[in-house]
Specification:
By secondary structure, this protein is of the alpha/beta class. It has helices at 42-45, 74-87, 99-110, 151-159, 169-177, 193-201, 211-214, 265-268, 270-279, and strands spanning 5-11, 14-21, 24-31, 51-57, 92-97, 115-121, 147-148, 180-183, 186-189, 221-226, 253-258. The chain has one domain (5-131, 205-279): Rossmann fold. 27% of the residues lie in helices and 23% in strands.
Length: 283
């Protein structure tokens, strides 16, 4: 697989980093989860040789600008819209995980011709009555270790943790290599802990509620929903944040319920994700 080109794209007055793999259109557009970055999709992109792919680092993440918190969730749809304008993207396949899934839907509501089909991987789209309620406590994220000697040190530390046991080595390697930024004689997290915590805190805010617009989406939609769950208000990174009846809110959606899977489907089951992308008409 050819190395992607890193572009700098203007969106809402800030700079968004976008990774582009050359190939045939329509492109695959990848949107990552909170705390991640665009290169977390490398292992899935390479399953589509010859297909153009674009993967952004949302604001606050990766190589993109780091605005001060709070960062309301509609901003992430603005980042995707900026990508669309800069590259002239139309009728792409939108693939979003977690917060990225929410953002792909939000962007599709705003700009209906941006995507021809959507694959939503355990998206953070809550039941409507959850919005406006007190968000779960994500303050522990502020205690995340921020400084590392090297990406290798981070990889070695995380490889030994149970929550990463099922991640492919390639995925964890990319997570560490592109999840850190050089800083003096070491490295710091590319998504600062205070930014990540603030994004989680906004997940159930009123402005994050896109439920009213979902019915306007006419494109085919596939939802991969994980079976691991947690009660509302309890933050479990491995639990599904997706409303159980989400598929019924779209005009043309199907759900694939993965009873034995946790939230990290792209990191643990890339072939499954690739198979669902192909079902949306991508060879």
């Amino acid at each position: 697989m050819n190395a992607p080109t890193l572009h700098r794209v203007a969106a809402d007055g800030i700079e968004i980093a976008v990774w582009e793999w050359p190939g045939e259109n329509p492109p695959l557009v990848f949107a990552h989860a909170t705390g991640f970055h665009g290169r977390i999709w490398d292992h899935i992109v390479r399953l589509f040789p010859g297909r153009r792919a674009l993967a952004l680092d949302f604001r606050g993440h990766g190589r993109s600008s780091k605005p001060a918190p709070p960062i309301p969730w509609p901003c992430f749809a603005t980042d995707l819209a900026g990508l669309g304008v800069h590259f002239g993207v139309r009728q792409a396949i939108g693939i979003g995980h977690s917060m990225g899934g929410h953002s792909v839907v939000s962007a599709a509501i705003r700009q209906p011709d941006l995507f021809a089909a959507l694959l939503l991987i355990d998206p953070v789209i809550l039941p409507p009555d959850y919005y406006g309620r007190r968000a779960f406590d994500a303050s522990f994220i502020l205690r995340r270790r921020n400084r590392w000697a090297s990406p290798q040190e981070m990889f070695d530390r995380f490889r030994a943790r149970p929550q990463f046991a099922a991640w492919l080595d390639e995925v964890l390697r990319n997570y560490c290599d592109y999840g850190l930024l050089a800083d003096g004689d070491g490295f710091v997290l590319a998504c600062p802990p205070e930014v990540e915590a603030a994004i989680y805190a906004c997940s159930s805010a009123h402005e994050s509620n896109i439920c009213a617009g979902i019915g306007t989406i006419t494109q085919p939609v596939t939802i991969l929903r994980a079976g691991v769950t947690a009660p509302f208000g309890v933050f479990d990174p491995a639990a599904s944040p997706t409303a159980p009846d989400l598929a019924s809110k779209f005009r043309n959606a199907r759900e694939v319920f993965l009873a034995d899977r946790n939230h990290f489907i792209p990191m643990e089951a890339p072939e499954l994700v690739a198979a669902e992308i192909r079902k949306l008409g991508v060879g």
